[in-house]
Amino acid sequence: MAGETTMPTEAAAEPNAGDKPAKPRPQVPWFRAVLDDQRLIGWSFLIALLCVWEFIVIQAKISPLYLPRPTRVVAVLWQNLMEADLATDLGLTLYRIFAGFLIALVTGVLLGVWMAVSKPVKAMADILIAALYPLPKVTLIPLLVIWLGTGGPFMLTISFMGAFFPIVINTVVGVQQCEPGLILAARDLGANLRQIVLRVLIPSAVPAIFAGIRIGLGISIILVVAAEMVVAKDGLGAKLFVAGQLLDTELVFAVLLVLALLGILITKGQDLIDDRLGLWRTN
Amino acid sequence: MTSPVIDIRFEDVRLAWETRKGPPTVALDRMRCAIPAGKVTAIIGPSGCGKSTMLQLARGFLEPSEGEIRFVDRRSGQSAPRPPMATVWQSFNLFPWLTILDNVAFGLEMSGVPKAERHARAMEALAKVDLRGFESKYPRQLSGGMRQRVGIARALVMKPEILLLDEPFGALDAQTRLVLQEQVAQIVQETGATVILITHSIEEAILLGDTIFVMTARPGRISREIEVALPKPRLLADLKRPEAVALFEEIYDLLKDEVVKAMTGESGAH
């Protein structure tokens, strides 16, 4: 910075705001660099756990009826994906989760924004949400079966109910936390109410809405799989339940593995989107 | 741009808020002043005297409890509709999810200007504040001084007849402020718009103002109107001229009393 004394202050302020100047990297031994890689640590730990599991099962001669080896589970999973209809079950479960979730996303954001800008709507919706939100949604399964049967509409409703409440609540919070200065600025620039809602309130609530999506999608997954276990003939939950009844422990583990992988995939995907939302966090 | 012809008149304006207990809070009382078209009026006063409230009233975001704010065509002396206005904010208030270009073009977009035209006009405004090349950045990637220049471009692109500057340099560090003050003095001069500048800084008021209104502590009223006779455009160096120094001391003396009043008033209320 020594040579910049003649430059105006604005230019001098730039480097720390825009592109970071290249920091001289301190010399570290390669094993330190490996140990610092968080992702590597996570995956290595998981693989180590599986190795220990495999080793213990072989050494202690545990029956596969109680605890199958990880390699067997993967083999069974592969076989079921290729030969049996596990892929179809997975597809069905995903469809049930995401169809209901998407409806919840659209209606939840709309109602949330409406609640945040209209006091009477908020008063009415608040009381309903206060009553319904803490209610464990699985307890509604019997009632929904009476009303809707066990087909598509039932599955749609159950996954919708899981995602809807967290999304509504987070949308309301997000909109209400909108920087008042931004609304004033938009009014100053001639925005009408509709434009303020669409161009300021909703965008500024996006990080909060996304937090709601995270929670809501998780609950939708739980509810759909649980509902499948109770009432469905197909889908991952049904597969899991039947495998348990038949004492097919390897298949039980295979389905659990699919669910775990699904969880990782969704969580990592959300992390990726979350990184992009860094845009919103500073002004 | 044709030179502005609309004066703003505050006519016995009172603004008070009801409080749950005790007497209402009076922000402004019997405020009477005329802000002349085409001039820069700097309003200076102690914290909480209602300076920013005056801007909100002029902008129409607040309604006075009593009295009225009139816009008067100085050629005919008749009341006129509210002319186009734009505000530059202390906290910038840029939309963090929009690029610099879209931030500047926001107002044009709201009024339905087609994309190609509004982008062209936004680029023009960005060039005026020396920010060409930053149009695809986001606000968080810019320094405070640059963000405020975006804020200025966003207001200028609306071609306001009245430009409201609400402590525009208040959130900037001292050095950035010095540079930006000079730049803004020049930009403002070029637009020829009527300007209301709210400020805490006596130097800033002298640097930019044609007239300086000194306000009293709450309830806010204008205690003195001072003409700044220094030639324009003014540079920071002009603040060292004897007329400027005398002006500074005059305003400082007026403010000192009011600041003390505001402080004791506050401690009395607690």
Automatic annotation (TrEMBL), chain A:
Gene Ontology biological process terms in this record: transmembrane transport
Transmembrane ranges, per UniProt, are 40-60, 94-115, 127-148, 154-175, 196-226, 246-266
User: Principal place where this protein is found?
Assistant: membrane
Q: Where is this region: Disordered?
A: 1-24
Q: Which InterPro entries match?
A: MetI-like, MetI-like_sf
Occurrences of domain ABC transmembrane type-1 (ranges): 90-270
User: In what way does this protein cross or attach to the membrane?
Assistant: Multi-pass membrane protein
> Where does it live in the cell?
Cell membrane
User: Which family does the record assign?
Assistant: Belongs to the binding-protein-dependent transport system permease family.
Protein name in the entry: ABC transporter permease
| UniProt organism field | Bosea caraganae
